[in-house]
Structures are given as C-alpha cells and as structure tokens.
Amino acid sequence: MTTSKVLPALPLLAPALVAGTLATPAAAATVSVTIPRINVAEYHRPYVVGWLEPVAGGAARTVFVWYDVKKAGREPGTKWLADLRTWWRKGGRSMQLPADGLSGATRAPGTYQIPLPANLAPGQYVLKVEAARETGGRELVSLPLTVPVKKGGSAAGTTELGAITIR
Amino acid sequence: MRYSPILIASAAAVAAFASPASAHRQWLLPSTTTLAGTSEYVTVDAAVSNDLFYPDHFPMNPEQVTVWTPDGTVGKLENPATGRYRSTFDVKIDKAGTWKIGTQRSAVMGSFKVGGEEWRVGGRGRPVPAGAAGAPPRSIATVAEIPADATDVKLTEIQSGNYIYVTADAPTKTVFTPTGKGLEIDPITHPDELVSNEEGRFRFLIDGKPAGGVKVTVVPGSKKFREAEQAQELTTDADGVLSVRWPVPGMYWINASASDNKPSEKRASERRMSYTATVEVVAP
Q1: Of A83, B67, B81, B93, which has the fewest Cβ atoms less than 10 A away?
Q2: pLDDT in tens, B39-76
Q3: DSSP states of A69-95
C-alpha cells in the first residue's frame, strides 16, 4: 500500500489536487469490525475472518483472519479454522496460514480498523465477516461494497459480531 | 430371541444387501467430514437400524471397513470396537484431500437343485439353528462349488458399497475415480461441501456410463426429534444426475439402487447394485 507513504507529501501540492486524490483511491477504504463483549462464565476470544466475494463471480479474497496463531502441538490453533465454515468452504481451506499481512492473533472485545486491499479491481463485491467462538456461537454478516469506494456502508451482527462499517 | 455372534454377523451382512423394501439401513456416521490440517482424527459409528442415525439394532463389523486415502492407497483403521448396537473406529486423517471410508462388497447368491433337493449359494440362506430337527443346512459359499450335475441354477449377482467422505483442507476427487464396474457416484457437487440452501448434484454411473432412472432415497437423521422422517424418493435424470434439495441442515443417508441383467458372473441372470453414503449438509 503506497498511498499512505505518499500522503505526507501531499500538503505541498495544490489543494484541488489533494481533494481529488483523497476522493478516489480504493486504498483509502477501511472496514471496522466490532467484537461485542459477551457476559458468559467461560469466554474465549472468537476466531474472526473477513473476505471479499466478487458479485460477478470469481475467487473470494481473504482480507483478515484472526485465530490462535501461537497454539501449537497436538491441537494447533489452526484446528478450529474450519469452524469458520462459510469462509473455509469459500477458500480458507486452500490457504497457507499464517499468511503475511492477513492473519493475526484473536482480538479482545472492541472495534478494530482493517484497511481493504489497495489493488482491488473496480466492481461490485460483498464483504463477509464471520465469527466463531469456542463454547459460543457462530455468525456471518454480509455487506455490499462497490470499488472504488465512494459511499460507505454498515451492517451489524446480533450475537457474535457487532457493527461492521466500511468507510 | 437370543442370537449367536455368527447370526448377528450374518444379519448385518444380509442387511447390507437388503432390498429397498427392507427398512433396516446400514449406516456409517463420521464425527465430522471437514477438517483443518492433517493432524486430526475422525471417529466413526457404524450400525444397522431402521432410524438414522439411531443405533438400536445391530452393529456393523469394523473388519469389513476399508480406508482409501486421497492418493488412492489403502489407509489404516484404528481402535475398532464392537458394541451391542453399534461399532466404532477411528481414522487418522494425516493427508490433505478427500478420503473415502466404507464397505464394498460383491457376491453371487441364489439356489440350485441336485437330485430334486434345493441348495443355496452365498450367505442369503437362513442358517439352521444348531440342534434343530430336520435336514442340515444345504448351502455352499461360492459359485465355484456348484456341482456339475446341478439343475435349476438361479443366481443373482449383488454389488454394494457404503461410504463416507472426509476432507482435510481442500477437497480432491481422486477417490471418486470410477472403476467402470457396478453402480458408482461421480459427484458434481463435492459431498464434503454441501450447504442446506444449495442444491446437491451427483451423477450416478453404471459400469462407468451415466445411469438414468436410478432410484435414490435421501433421508436426514434425527427423525426422533421431528414429526416425519422427511425422506425423499428421487430418481436420476436422463444424464444420470440426481438433484437434491435439503429440507434441513444435518447428516443425510443417501441410498441408490438399480438392477439389470448384465452381471459379470456368467451363470447369474440378474445383477442388483446399491450405493450408500452418509453426507454432511451444513447450515449456510
């Protein structure tokens, strides 16, 4: 993602050009994902994954996947990736993990910002966010998306996921 | 009524060849069909019963089960155990791809006469209980033992297969490579990626060619917890394709049967074929 490196130099350019640059790049789009706080006796941070499916068809593209990256041995953290069952079927099962820039540790309840890939081809997509929690539930939230992103959008889960917002 | 171990084994064997009219169903039930990574096990229940997947009749014999790994080689079954109603075994799924686990049988059964006395061929004859009055069981195991002076030879060839499919990481199709013999499946939708809101499509083959008009029964498990069994009686189309809509997510028992007059055993007049599989249909 080169845009962010370019941005600090932009104030030197004409204001009109700056405005034009900020309005168009797809790289500026960010998805925010909220993991709700759940009051249960036994809480484990959920496995959460986000991916993009082109509406016209084609391969799904994983944007982020949070799982227990440290757990190794007889029951490695990767064991429960299949519980993210829709993502697993749409392409997770063919991925090599950990994957640079995509995979990371599970997150505590809170809101997280994830930049969407800078090199997305223009077109219609559906952003899908799926969460599965040990001893808990599983939820899938879908949100339509047009690239380049001119207008954001928002959706929300009811159990395992909170607000999902594209800006 | 008490059963000897031999009788229990033969009852299970008979059920494997049972005609569609018989409600006793032979089934395999895997703990899961989808695994992440190659360090996991799948554990399987195997039984014969009316209701799916509720073991209340006879166990299957784990010795009859074969494991085919994704590259087509034969794999290993571990920890087999036979209980009163069901048997269990484990398979270490240590290679990526789709595994096939199940039973595969081929037999010739029927009858003939020698000097006006009727004899039976194969395991379908009822064994006479030990100590029972009357004639000893007049039966032989194989066609090769039929004496030269036999008359009224009536033989049926029976082929059957009963499988589950388990996939570690991405699915593969090697285990579906048709042998070109009997009733087989050539899946269009992979059996390990079925979802309840999408139609499942499977092509059936007889001797390697698409088989239209094959009758297929599709039954979801857990009838106990519903009013009706929700079984579907379906038929393959002209291209041999079966299209299935799944009323609920869950484990399903699929049983296809066909018969024709093209047995590979020359002295047999009829061939009866069946294909059975248990598949997992997840919620979207």
Answers
A1: B81
A2: 999 999 999 999 999 999 999 999 999 999 999 999 99
A3: -S--TTS-GGGGGGGSHHHHHHTGGG-
Domain residues for the domain of A119 are 44-166
Note the pLDDT tens digit of each residue in A20-75.
Answer: 444 444 456 999 999 999 999 999 999 999 999 999 999 999 999 999 999 998 89
The domains of chain B are located at 5-106+158-282, 107-157
Question: Hey, what CATH topology would domain B5-106+158-282 get?
Answer: Immunoglobulin-like (2.60.40)
Min Cα separation A28/chain B (Å): 31
Q: Which residues pair with B100 in a beta bridge?
A: B68, B165
* Domain annotation covers residue A107: yes
Residue B158 CB partners (closer than 8 Å, separation 6+): B17, B105, B106, B107, B108, B109, B271, B272, B273
Flag if A82 and B170 touch (Cβ within 8 Å): no
Chain B residue closest to A141 (CA)?
B284
Determine phi and psi for B38, rounding to 5 degrees.
-120, 35
pLDDT in tens, B69-87: 999 999 999 999 999 999 9
CB pairs under 8 A between A and B: 31
Q: Which residues of B touch A97 (CB under 8 A)?
A: none
Over 50: is that where the pLDDT of B123 sits?
yes
Contacts of B193 in chain A (CB under 8 A): 89
Across the interface, do A79 and B37 touch by the CB < 8 Å criterion?
A: yes
Distance from CA of B95 to the nearest CA of A (A): 14
Task: Let me know if residue A24 belongs to a domain.
Answer: no
ipTM of the complex: 0.81
Q: Is residue A25 part of a domain?
A: no
Q: How many domains does chain A have?
A: 1
